């Protein structure tokens, strides 16, 4: 499957906000992703459609570059570029580029003591039912293990049996109910928590589940941090 997991970046915010509105139309207020990026306790992962991104790059390579502008390419251009960088403090333009536009889902995670708490999982409507949500859960568990968390927890609507089945598959257990948790219709939430994820028993189960996933979807790449890459290969 041509989907890759990596951390959320500033330039992704517009696209991720769009997916959030699509998945949770009644959510208010919206998640302040810019502030979340600055929160040391929060981590966000995005799922990126690398197939469509590759097509964009190929199309760009097929088009010859425009003639070089003598102003923008000369001394004046370099001075203006330097001035722009100073005015923006070197922060990249938040407008979504091709890579951000290729995002098809995201997952939010908060770290509290030895617990990692999933705050949101959302997948673009056209990509639902294609394994993206499951891959985000795999990436989340990898990140929680790498961060030294002992357990992972979340809330799910009591009516969302599809999501609950996925979480049960990965070792989450129903441990309680939060009454009237969702503000749009006062629906209850099912509280779900894993058993300790740092045990050999859980990690052996997790490895088997990843193998089953790769048998179905093929190799995927999960980046837990910038510059870090984990290739998960299908079993031989």
What's the short version?
The chain is an alpha+beta fold and 236 residues long. It has 8 helices and 9 strands.
Would you kindly provide a written description of the structure presented here, covering whatever features stand out?
This protein is 37% helix and 25% strand. It has 236 residues and is an alpha+beta fold. It has one domain: Gcn5-related N-acetyltransferase (GNAT) (Aminopeptidase). Strand 8 and strand 9 form a beta hairpin. The longest helix has 18 residues. The radius of gyration is 20 Å and the shape is globular.
- What's the pLDDT, averaged over the residues? 86
Low-confidence stretches: 55-60, 83-95
Give the class-level CATH name. Answer: Alpha Beta
Could you tell me how far the N terminus lies from the C terminus, measured between alpha carbons in angstroms? 17 Å
CATH superfamily: Gcn5-related N-acetyltransferase (GNAT)
Strand order of the largest sheet: 6-7-5-4-3-2-1-8-9
Number of strands: 9
Question: What's the CATH topology label?
Answer: Aminopeptidase
Strand content of the residues, in percent? Answer: 15-25%
How many strands, which pairing sense, and closed or not: the largest β-sheet?
9 strands, mixed
Order of helices and strands: EHHEHHHEEHEHEEHEE
> What is the C-alpha radius of gyration, as a whole number of Å?
20 Å
CATH architecture: 3-Layer(aba) Sandwich
Total number of distinct structural domains: 1
- Would you tell me the structural class of the helices and strands? alpha+beta
- Total helical segments: 8
Net shape? globular
The percent of residues in helical segments reads 25-40%
């Amino acid at each position: 499957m041509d989907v890759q997991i990596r951390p959320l970046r500033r330039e992704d915010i517009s696209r991720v906000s769009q997916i959030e509105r699509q998945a949770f139309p009644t959510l208010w207020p919206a998640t302040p992703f810019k502030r979340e990026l600055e929160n040391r306790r929060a981590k966000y992962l995005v799922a990126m459609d690398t197939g469509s991104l590759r097509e964009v790059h190929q199309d760009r390579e097929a088009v010859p570059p425009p003639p070089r502008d003598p102003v923008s390419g000369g001394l004046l251009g370099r001075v203006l570029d330097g001035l722009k960088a100073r005015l923006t403090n070197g922060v990249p333009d938040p407008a979504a580029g091709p890579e951000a536009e290729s995002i098809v889902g995201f997952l939010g995670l908060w770290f509290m003591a030895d617990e990692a708490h999933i705050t949101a999982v959302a997948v673009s409507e056209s990509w639902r039912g294609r394994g993206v949500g499951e891959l985000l859960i795999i990436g989340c568990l990898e990140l929680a293990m790498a961060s030294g968390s002992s357990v992972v927890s979340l809330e799910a609507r009591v009516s969302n049996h599809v999501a609950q089945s996925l979480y049960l598959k990965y070792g989450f257990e129903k441990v309680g109910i939060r009454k009237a948790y969702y503000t749009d219709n006062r629906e209850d939430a099912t509280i779900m928590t894993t058993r300790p994820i740092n045990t050999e028993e859980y990690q052996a189960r997790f490895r088997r589940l990843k193998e089953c996933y790769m048998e179905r979807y093929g190799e995927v790449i999960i980046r837990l941090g910038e510059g870090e890459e984990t290739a998960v290969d299908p079993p031989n």
